[in-house]
Amino acid sequence: MEKKQSKLAIVTNGLLKENPNLRLVLGTCPTLAITTAVFNSIGMGLAATFVLIFSNMAISACRKIIPDKVRIPAFITIIAGFVTIVMMLVQAFVQPLYQALGVYLPLIVVNCIILGRAEMFASKNGVLDSALDGLGMGLGFTLTLTLMGFVRELLGAGTLFGIQILPSSIEPMAILASPPGGFFVFGVLMALAIFVDEKQGKKVDADPEKMGCAGCPNSKNCHGEGGCE
Amino acid sequence: MLVKASPHIRDNSSTQKIMLDVIIALCPAIIASGIIFGLRALLLIAVTVIACVAFEYLYCRLMKKPIPVGDLSAVVTGILLAFNLPSTFPFWMAVIGAFVSIVIVKQLFGGLGHNFANPAIVGRIVLAVSFAGRMTNYAFPTFEGGVDALASATPLVATRNADLPLLQLFLGVHGGVLGETCAAALLLGGIWLVARKVISPVIPVTYLATVAVISLIAGQEPLVQLLSGGLMLGAIFMATDYVTSPYTLTGKLVFGLGLGIITCAIRFWAASAEGVSYAILLMNVFVPYINDLTRQKPLGGAKKK
Asked: Residue ranges per domain, chain B?
């Protein structure tokens, strides 16, 4: 076992160093699909953060009684419960967001970030640590989505939160609002995250062939046990 | 007698010389676009060329790479990109196109020789998807009658209603993007490239022949299909890019055939009037596989399992 991480490190891990989208490359489907507007991005991010915190806590609390062989179905059931709560809340109070997110809201159930954190963190750590991990990862997810939504809405449609920002003489680049533009912005952000990581003195080898377990941003959680590929 | 390792036969060709030949071959079409669309066409070409060279220089400077501006490939990309834009196109949008072509498609993938697709084609497609209205705002040739400039549809759109005389199509006196209209000038450039052995005629000929045959089968006028739209420009100058076309003879035939089929499929049965750029991009992506599948077996070499 490695040394215990400090509580603050658990939260800040998710922001950049182990950012679920940019460094672990999980949950890319909503990242690409719903980030055409900042409002949708923030809504999606917060909904996922809510589910992350509570499912992490519940799974962490039950980690001793869930049999190892059926842990995945058990995790999914717990996650699905919280997603249902979020769905009902959003539908009741933020109708426009519910309309905009559509099928991606119930799809949080199968969001790899949430299942990934359950498997990699919550099932091995205490309730408080798991809640903090969920918070950090959720905030990292929200941060990425908001950044992508900001760039894509501003340059792709000329608006922010639906309000015209760019003068009408500058035509927005529609391609950024379409899927190829989404992939492009995502790629640029991933490169930026690695760039910032390298600036802080950590050598990042992005080549998966050479990276192996040691270079994997997840290695701290699985304690080098491997078996994830 | 001294025997060195192969290659035994060398010539003094270099990237710079090849690109210079391509630029010479593009000159008739540049002059034609100047005559047909006026001074602004030449200005637009200048803007994209300067932007392409500047982006290449700045990127390599910033990334501390050797600066490859001298090989003139950025100049060719700039001219080809401008050839894909209408003469009314805003300059700042053209600069975005140059950025996409040089920085994203060419340099991010490793520079000349490593780009997965023709930079100018991707630049054009990104601009076409982003600024659809501007990209189809074709100005009509300036010397027609008393009207200075008249917006008109490209013949591909127009031929669905009325027919243009073939001679007019051949000389390029009609609306369209800068470089695509004057088939005569493009053919002249193509003949120069083939005569100088810069390109092999296999890809353009297969491409054009496929389009002609499919047009006949589909009940379209083959000559009109050959002369209108970006087909000549694409077939002669953009599909023959060394980096993004197959190097085996069979591969070239397959490449040309695929280009023709995709172009016709988009022209005749899709919502878009023109399919040349998408055809070239799609076939560019297939090139590594085409090369692999058509590679010649060395004499006496073992069979691949």
From this structure: 16-293
